[in-house]
Amino acid sequence: QVQLVESGGGSVQAGGSLRLSCAASGYTYCMAWLRQAPGKEREGVATICAGGGGTYYADSVKGRFTISQDNAKNTLYLQMNSLKPEATAMYYCAARRRSDFWYGWSQVRTFGYWGRGTQVTVSS
Q1: Residues 6+ away with beta carbon under 8 Å from 30
Q2: What does the alpha-carbon distance between residue 64 and residue 115 come to, in Å, rounded to a whole number?
Q3: Which of 89, 102, 113, 122 fits a disulfide with 35 by CB distance 3.0 to 4.6 angstroms?
Q4: Distance between CA 19 and CA 65 in Å, rounded?
Q5: Mean pLDDT computed over 89-113
Q6: Quick one: pLDDT at residue 103?
Q7: In this predicted structure, what is the pLDDT of residue 40?
Q8: Cα-only R_g, the chain
Q9: What is the DSSP string of 20-87?
């Protein structure tokens, strides 16, 4: 069983930065950050897969957000720079096993394991 615990959310002004962390227990093949703003569907932000499986970003965050992993600490990160008010959302860490069906890097159903989320609020 995989458990995911996010941290690092908070409030920041537009143009600022935040770094989210996700501590994982158990082996995962791909890990991701997805976000959900009030009244909107959950959407993929960034995904990273092991063994050269690829790194993926939403167009809206390319060049400003960076997803990374520290394998020794079994921790996933999301460095968010030049934050915009539209980034305000609950951010969820998610993971999948290699054997799970691949619906796409940003699809909610691709991921079978989820954290409880951490809130990010960007004010203008």
Answers
A1: 47, 48, 49, 50, 53, 95, 96, 98, 105, 110, 111
A2: 23
A3: 89
A4: 9
A5: 95
A6: 94
A7: 97
A8: 13
A9: EEEEEES--SEEEEEEE-TTS--EEEEEEETTTTEEEE-TTTTTTEEEEEETTTTEEEEEE-S--GGG
